[in-house]
């Protein structure tokens, strides 16, 4: 029998499950449909982020960092480790346990907030001004009627041309997180976030890693000073990155992958890898939505077309997260999900794209918000900068990690903060202060005048703000 809801959310990733919870909190009858399955075939909400993205990758990054510290850094602290060995099976089991905790946590939150959950694939069957008919293909077939629909179906990995993922030799993020042994030689196509993070994990665990990047510069979206420091640190760690590469023939053998390519100077090269990770971006996941039949418009790149408030071409149908324009970030999806739920309820949901932080969870961590120095130059904005190295920070010295710096970019006339860029310990946490400051249009002087605990890494943020006015106290 058909079921009626005020809001039906298709997709249970960060944007979808958060949108469903917020809609329910606002008093609307809400359902969420998600098709992810765990090993036993049961529901595993949380999307790519929870299952094969953000959460498991951070678990492996943490475990592999502990392994590297035990082998190389503990001795400096007077901790002697003998007969260090890797139990990869247990490490992967820990990762899976963390994933399951997050899956179960989302199901609990649905129950707590009275969100009705359906396990299966949701698709449009009919669309009208007053209601939309949604079909669910799962263990049992369901038909739902909704006044409003929020599409939050996320994204899928982009395959290299004529090189499909088999998740055995040619790996997407899914296979990269589930290798049952450390490859001797690991190749990666793409030096983006996934490539750098997965390269870091397997290098720490003993793989010889080579990353092939088509662009002539590393981390082109980051501030140039940060990118340069990152490249220097990755090289020091043994992460080999070749830029300006043109991939030629790729041959998949029985137990290896051979890549013929031209390096940045145009010289022909050949590399043979035990495993190859392809991380060249992601595509919007609209397959199976039945979008064309109901008139749900897609843009020229295959994303669901939306306006500034995430409305689609269909009345009372919205879309959020990776399946629409904007950065493919879990926290961006969450903010859009909340904003849409509030707009449906007649409120004024808010997402400021200018203050969405970016984070790369390598070592050192890299995080930024706002404009880079290149961008303010291109926009011909009169600006000042201030930087402070972690080398001069007492807490960083105590931690044994003094790599990197904090950099502020501020308007030369108003002193408003235009961007903050961090490479170093706990950058992912430190960037939040900058996000708050920029959301309230603070000046660098505002941060410089705020008392920060001593000793703390956050003092580097204060000192960088002071440096905008050339009055850093500890450097």
Task: Explain this structure.
The strands form 5 sheets. The protein has a 5-stranded mixed barrel with strand order 1-2-3-4-5. By secondary structure, it is of the alpha/beta class. The model has no long low-confidence stretch (mean pLDDT 97). The protein folds into 3 domains: 3-157 and 283-351, FAD/NAD(P)-binding domain; 170-280, FAD/NAD(P)-binding domain (3-Layer(bba) Sandwich), CATH 3.50.50.60; 355-468, 2-Layer Sandwich (Enolase-like, domain 1), CATH 3.30.390. It has helices spanning 14-25, 47-52, 54-72, 88-112, 173-176, 193-204, 224-237, 291-294, 330-344, 373-378, 394-399, 427-439, 444-449, 459-468; strands at residues 3-10, 30-34, 115-127, 132-138, 142-151, 155-157, 170-171, 185-189, 208-212, 240-242, 246-252, 257-262, 268-273, 275-278, 282-284, 317-319, 358-360, 365-370, 383-389, 405-411, 417-424.
How many E-type strands? Answer: 21
User: Which CATH first-tier class of the largest domain would you pick?
Assistant: Alpha Beta
Globally, the shape reads globular
CATH superfamily assignment of the largest domain? Answer: FAD/NAD(P)-binding domain
**Content-based structural category:** alpha/beta
Mean pLDDT: 97
Please count the helical segments: 14
Q: Examine the secondary-structure arrangement and name the CATH architecture of the largest domain.
A: 3-Layer(bba) Sandwich
